[in-house]
Amino acid sequence: MNIVNFTPISSLTGGIIIGFAVLIFFLFNGRLIGISGIASNFINREEKRLDNFLFLVGLIIGPIFYKLFFNKEIYINISNSFILLIIAGLLVGFGTRISGGCTSGHGISGISRFSLRSLIATITFMIVGVITVLIKNYL
């Protein structure tokens, strides 16, 4: 197994920043952070919340600011077909509905609150992810 680009310092820094973002979002909005919940609330609710919109915009412009400030290219290599990606996206959306949240909501906000439901959901996400990679790479 070849580990390419092992980056513990930037990974730790990113984790700390994510932790602070969750804390700040909760302190200012009184809500937990989870991308599927924020996106769903923004799309489905009649009352559009500014904080949901700003969060989603931040996800889009964050990498742009990173590229501008650090002068580094962001490489994205899509190695699967777009049809497969669309099917995978729909399955992820379906899974977030079944589990009542996504990996960010359960894995970051839920586990930090010691939620048993979130712990079980996150473990399930990881096991299914590993199985999916094994099936894709070895079958």
Question: How is the secondary structure organized here?
Answer:
Elements: H1 8-29, H2 35-44, H3 50-70, H4 82-99, H5 103-112, H6 116-138
Helix pairs in contact: 2-3, 5-6
> Mean pLDDT score, rounded?
84
Number of strands: 0
How much helicity do the residues have?
A: over 70%
SSE order, as H and E?
HHHHHH
Secondary structure category: mainly alpha
What is this structure, in a nutshell?
The protein is an all-alpha fold.
Explain what this protein looks like in three dimensions:
The chain has 139 residues and is an all-alpha fold. The chain has one domain (8-138). 75% of the residues lie in helices and 0% in strands. It has helices at 8-29, 35-44, 50-70, 82-99, 103-112, 116-138. The protein is globular, with a radius of gyration of 17 Å.
Essential attributes:
75% helix; 0% strand; mainly alpha; 139 residues
